[in-house]
Specification:
alpha/beta, about 30% helix, nine-stranded mixed β-sheet, Rossmann fold, about 25% strand
């Protein structure tokens, strides 16, 4: 792991720290000695945890204290592999067990809101995989609870941390594209096979896949003020490893149109019915997945926004497309919880922001309401913007 430098953190936080409605992280950091590690517990020892734990285990700011899973063998295996001293079969036992500072939630998405609330009530900071709740109202209540207890809450994804995102954001803010008018993003594959929860109520392609593009586009173009969308189910029956043949309830195909406060229009398509030679892991993706157009130029993100490796850019001043920002500089999609741990330890605000995660959650909810009603849905949430100074 390549740790973020203090300069990187300061650059990422200049405007966000001033605008954050949460208590300053510095106040928490003052309670810690300079070499203090954040005591971390992880709940949900399935597929996502196998990506998080290697990253967390290498951080000088993290002490892995506990692992928890309702399938006890998974928690035990994770504890043995990463030298975690405690493992538990249920969140009640986790919260009553060894003390920790930060709970990382990587369970089935339908459980996130309930588990995150329990952790906050127990006095723990929370990093949650996406989404951090099952509705905007539930997520806002979690944030209010965190504020009332002087705790911190964050939600994945961490796409705003990439150097490619930073470059694109600065280019827009500096006017290199002129007046930005439109953007498009896409992400899809043939769908997860290892669990039924992706296709059950509260699952779906929007909170699993579209969430990345929605976070990127709102982060780059600013909060959306209205949404129109169409969603449906292309494959009504699926076979999954943990439950055999199931009926699909949540959308597996979605098209979302956002109007941003700036006037720009953006579009996200996502689904579990996309033949993609790059597969679920996206290895080898060398084509644009996000495109942004303005009156003076255009930019294309090369690779997926959760694993980018370049930005193609052409402007009036440099009409020949050039590939820029080809180094990930240590960024990986699973770094969010590690960055948050470093942030808690140092008191330096991260670019990742809970109000942004809540805004994306409201977009997802609005997209589904638009499908149900056939109407354009106005949004009420905002977040500190621009995210990069």
């Amino acid at each position: 792991m390549k740790n973020l430098t203090r300069r990187d953190f300061l650059d990422r936080s200049a405007k966000l720290a001033a605008a954050s409605i949460l208590a300053p992280l510095a106040a928490h950091a003052l309670e810690l000695s300079p070499d203090k590690k954040i005591k971390v517990a992880i709940i949900g020892c399935g597929s996502v945890s196998t990506q998080y734990l290697p990253h967390l285990s290498k951080s000088p700011f993290v002490e892995l204290v506990s692992a928890c899973d309702i399938i006890p063998e998974r928690a035990k295996r994770a504890a043995e592999k990463y030298n975690i001293p405690n493992h538990y079969p249920h969140i009640d036992a986790l919260l009553a067990g060894a003390n920790f500072d930060l709970m990382i939630t990587t369970t089935d998405m339908q459980e996130h809101g309930r588990l995150n609330k329990m952790a906050l009530l127990a006095g723990k900071h929370v990093w949650s995989e996406k989404p951090l709740a099952n509705s905007y109202a539930e997520g806002k209540a979690l944030l209010d609870l965190a504020k009332s207890k002087n705790l911190h809450l964050w939600g994945a994804p961490a796409v705003v941390n990439s150097p490619q995102f930073a470059f694109m954001a600065r280019s827009i803010q500096e006017g290199k594209l002129g007046k930005v008018s439109a953007a498009h993003a896409h992400y899809g594959h043939l769908g997860p096979t290892w669990s039924a929860f992706f296709y059950e109520q509260g699952g779906g392609s929007l909170p699993d896949l579209g969430v990345y593009n929605l976070a990127s586009l709102t982060g780059l173009l600013g909060p959306a003020k209205s949404v129109m969308a169409m969603t449906n189910i292309i494959t009504p029956d699926r076979v999954v490893d943990n439950n055999g043949k199931i009926k699909v309830v949540a959308e597996d195909n979605a098209m979302v149109l956002m109007e941003h406060a700036s006037g720009a229009l953006s579009h996200v398509q996502c689904g579990f019915n996309y033949f993609d030679p790059y597969g679920h892991e996206g290895a080898g993706q060398e084509k644009p997945t996000i495109s942004i157009w303005g009156t003076k130029g255009n930019m294309n993100l090369i690779g997926y926004d959760w694993a980018p490796f370049g930005v193609d850019m052409a402007t009036l001043d440099n009409e020949k497309t050039a590939r820029l920002v080809t180094d990930a500089e240590g960024y990986v999609w699973q770094q969010g919880a590690t960055v948050i741990s470093q942030s808690l330890a140092t008191g330096i605000e991260p670019r990742i922001n809970v109000e942004h995660a809540l805004h994306v959650l409201e977009v997802i909810e609005a997209a589904r309401r638009s499908q149900e009603t056939g109407m354009r849905i106005a949004l009420k949430s905002i977040f500190p913007y621009p995210m990069v100074s």
